[in-house]
Here is the input.
Amino acid sequence: MMLTAESIQVIKEKAARYPRRKSAILPALTVAYRQLGYVDNDVYREISEIISVPLVEIAEAATFYTMFPKEQTGRYLIQVCNNISCALLGADSLIGYLEKKLGIKKGETTPDKKFTLISVECLGSCATAPMMQINHDFYESLTPAKVDKILDELRAKS
Amino acid sequence: MFYSPVTTNANECASNPKLHLFRHVEDTSQHLLATYVKHDGYKAWRKVLGGMTPESVAEEVKKSGLRGRGGAGFPTGMKWGFIPKGTTKPRYLCCNADESEPGTCKDRVLMERDPHGVIEGMAIASYAIGCHLMFIYIRGEFGHCIERMEAAMREAYSAGHLGKNIYGSGFDLEMIVHTGGGAYICGEETALINSLEGEKGMARIRPPFPAIEGLYACPTIVNNVETLAAVTHIINNGADWYRTLGTEKSAGTKLFSLSGHVKRPGNFEVELGFPLKKMIYDPAYGGGILGDRKLKGVIPGGASTPFLTPDMVETAKLDYESLTVCGSMLGSGAIIVFHEGTCIVWTLLRLIHFFRHESCGKCTPCRDGTGWLEQIIHRIEHGHGRPEDLQALDDICGNILGRTVCPLGDAAVMPIQSALRLYRDEWQYHIDHKKCMVESHFDFK
Amino acid sequence: MSQHVKPSDPIITPTETVTFTIDGQSVTVPKGTTVLEAALRSGISIPTFCWHPKLKPVGACRMCYVEIERMNKLQVSCATEAGNGMVVHTKSNQVLQGRKAVLEFTLTNHPLDCPTCDKGGECDLQNLTFEHGYDDSRFEFSKRRKTMGITDENRTTFDDLRIGPEIVLNRNRCILCYKCVRANKEAFGEYDLGAYERGNITEINSAPGQQVDNPFSGNLVEICPVGALTNSDWRYKIRVWLTKTTPSICNFTSSGVNTLFYKEDHKNKMYRTTSRRNDAIDDGWISDVSRYGYQIVNSEERLKTPLVKRNGKQVAVSWDEAIAVIKEKLSAIQDRKGSVCLAGLASPSLDNASLHTFNKFCRTVLETNNVDFRTDYKSLPEKSGSAFESLCNQPFSIADIDRSDVIVVFGSDLTREHHNEYLRIRKAANFVHPRIYFMNPYRTKAADVADSEIVYNQGCDEAIITGICHAAIEENLVDGSLASKFTHIAGGQSLAQCAKAAGVDENDLRYVARALSSGKKITFIAGELLTRSIAREQIASSLTNLSRLFQLQSKGQIAVLARHANSVGAGKLGLMPTLSSEQTATLKAEWGTLPTASGLTTDQIFTQAAKGEVAGLLVFGANPMQLYPDKAFAKAALEKLEFLVVADLFETETTAFADVVLPISSWAEYTGDYVNLEGKSQTARAAIRPIEGTVPAFAIIDRIAEAFGRKLFASDSQRTNEMTALLSLKSSEMPSEFASVPFPSPNGNGGLALMVVDDSHHCGHITEKSPSLSAFCGETYAEISPETAKASGVSDGDAVRLENEFGRIVVRARISEQIRNSVVVVPCNFMACPVTSLQSHKARVDRVKLTRVSE
Here is the structure.
């Protein structure tokens, strides 16, 4: 079992509130992703058992959305918005800056497995562009200085 | 401490009685129940449960002229009226908080800073349609919104604004905060319903319409966050009051997200009918073009709306009718401004890439068409455009427009069609000279 | 395939109609009909990919555009309800351009695999492109390839991926019409196939870590409009235009599912079976058994020459010689010991002509009444006009299942024995939403379509039914006078006692009672778990009581569903020792006389044979050694016989005992009629000529009779007329009074209850010979609950020994997703592992002990 007892408890509580079992698929995937940082076939199986929904429906839903990667990413998943409003304010340049700072290309993970850098679609922060989401937090209205500070803070965390 | 450090015109709203949605969003404790109640919170909900019939609530909203603020602009009261009378099936209200339209970041402010306002609006709408279990579907990336909404929901339950026999009225109302998994298409109402059911977020054919057969095959109403937040104020101040705001056909106020090449990007609440030029240039709002450069174009209502050229911007007003006359749409109210240093083809490549990525894959024209469009625009942008490409783009767009299950197909092609129409020489330049007419390079600093 | 484009009748025909114009033609259709269906019904063709007459429309492919006046956009006709006064154009310029556009999009990434793609010649995309598409393409980018999941180990040419024992997937060719996933989930209730990802990288694939091996998987290949899903069975073997088709009927179900056999033109070989949509029976779906069963016909192992036992060894002889031996030996017994010492067993999968000829031969040449077709049932109580018999002959309409508002399934593991009716019940659940209850001695897979499944103690079937009657009376749900009659005659036990004996909750019985009383159109079906019981007469009595009490016949249908292709035909033609008075009268009129000594049933034949009292036996198409539910009993009988003749397709354990073995032609090699479980007679046309050396059963018997100096029928039409007279006899009525039903006594304990079934991919003893069906399931297994597994320390796939006083077998354990009680379910279809050696024809419930075998 990869999901902790606590995660399973949360999933069951959330599932109980919906009129139909199947609606619990997204909440279950969200809880699993929060705990593990990825969701793969084995996790689908566990969820399938917990909420009593056929495995294939979990897999179909999970692969449809972008928030449930199948493999473990770096400890900090840096998602830079590259849609129009952010691009107009230098998202490409921000990505280039991060690539330089981290020493990796977009789509890659640093060798110490700490940072993964990807670009994503609109994150709903258009008026505070350019911005990025790191794991579950938003960092908005970025400047090179702010980016440096954020990376230093994250690097300092063990 | 606010999670989103976005600029708003809340100060103006605090002193202007016509502006109500943003009135308290600069108050750092507005999201807490105690502050909300101090600011007339749950007064409308009490009023509704204190003796109004569901029909009268719906009638008030209908009279107010409130239209859907998520993008479609459909009259809200009329939509509620589509629920079949006398149906014994449970009804559901879904608040659409899947804000993913590029350029749009307004609902976020309401959810993070005034979540109770959203809950109250949802509750009133639920009462009007006879719903006892309401959902708010928040996009999964909005971690802070979700935290705030869940906390507000818990407060509301504890204080008896939600739950069983609210205020002793005999009306029960439960609420679920449902989070998405990352899909723009789930902002489309039938895809949202599918996603809520646990299916993939694919759009459904209509009929049957959600008001007849929606969530779990029961009558369902899907409304945007801003729409529902406005309901509270309509009940508090009356439909007649709402009618005095905005224009005759576009009553009320709207939140606009201003982004792109302006000095003061932010979220601004103004009455409908507000001049677009003022929004962009007035120092209280956009403050003018970044770097004081020349304006090249504006997308007025989110990435899926056609472009406006500078001469259109001169006279355009921000309401449903005026923008339609200009050949565009009010949409979600996301105004994206770009100056003369922007390559149009570069812009369209961003947009079509987005739509192709977000297509749910159900119907052939959108699924296969957006991919093909992206491939052509990509090669034009990178200097390999062919003479027949522009005709091909026109044809393909024509084969997608109006031919898909849901409006995503239309959304994908309208910007392309308008760009081809309004900036054709720039496209031609790309093909003839194999490079951009204007190199778009934006530094972040 | 064109038959799938035929429109469907509405399930509940509304009384209102709408009238509108399509292509200038005025059309009137029931309200709710879509424009597409109305057009197809009027003979106007509209192209489609994603529409299927039996699935909910999705509007995904956009091929079915039409132009409707006063609607400015093209509308998809599959999802547009026809409205009064609509004016529809299906061939306007805009529509034609729209279709071209859709095909252009579809073809952008579709690989030009036609030269090597199995679907060529029957491909919807090919056909519609020719008819409606552009001549050329302006897409010159590289076509997208989907290769996720393809490794060096499983790489084949053309990016194919095997996703099941029979199904090969090519994702590049898929046009994402979603018919396969929709049919799999909606129509079959299976979850082994899914559509993953989003947008234009969406791909169809099996469920993670699973194979697509459900009993209906072959249909997915059939409905795929392109060559994305193909069959291994058909792969690269032949082009469809080189084949000829014959309309036929499946020989493995009692539903009479309509099929199409494909043979190579001018050659005597069969290549494929597909569906042949008949909305009254099968809706165009056939199970995998129906689909791949034809491979048995082509098997290399077919018997092709008669055998005669000489000095303990069976040697090949000519037909003349074999027949001569038969005549000699049977006459000798007849003279020496009398006709009562002769008997005949015929398989209920044989056609009407063969069964009737067999009957006539036994009764008029061998002059014995010892004839039976129930060759795999336990001890049969014989009583003329029995309740069981009447239930087997009740009017039943498969199509009425769709229209029912209450459906009860009693004693049937549907996905193993009645695939077709299971699909029909699913269809009702999807479209009409009836209340559905299942009642079984173990949890079945089919029950996920039900509102609830009541699992009762094995061997207590009558208690449940009587309990439901009591529940109805208690709540005043039935007519007062009937209630008091029931209580007086049959109301021995109370509801509480019935529930306790059956091991169920009283409330469960109340729900069923309420449904049966309030339902307006009821379908009540009972299946093999009852038919195979020694107590079937009692159970049937309790059912006829129930039917009478609830007056089911006036508001629906109640029937015991037959199991074999021609069980109903065999019954009507009188292949039984005791005949009804009508049958006796008819046969006497046709044949002159009938033997007077009362006849023996199958188990009585075996009893007498073991004693030496029955000395000669003919067995046509049956295999008691493998399928009779008491192997030792059958063996004792067969080995004692003086003379045994067995006619079958293959060598079996039964033929091994035979003095004469005759090679019989299969159902596909001659034209025959079969009566399905609705009582409908259908013709299965011959696909090919009889395999060299084999002879159809009826012809064999004709020849044997000739050897006796008798011509059974002056002409084929005489045979036909005789059968018609029998088949048109009125079926027996249900008993006109309530009957007292003895309460079942507690049934032994200790150990697991043994349930012998057909595997969902098999039927009887010959399907093993189909390579495809064996690929799905090739050996016996023991299906047990997770609790039983845990208690015995058994993991999935472990070898386990099942044993009791009668015998022991070793099989692989299969831990079930459904089963929760202490039963073990074992299929009977595999010669290598005869589960019947654990059964006793005297036991109501067979019990076994399960232990893990260390390997």
Notes: Chain B has 19 helices and ten strands. The domain at 344-433 of chain B is CATH 1.20.1440.230 (de novo design (two linked rop proteins)). The two ends of chain B are 24 Å apart (CA to CA).
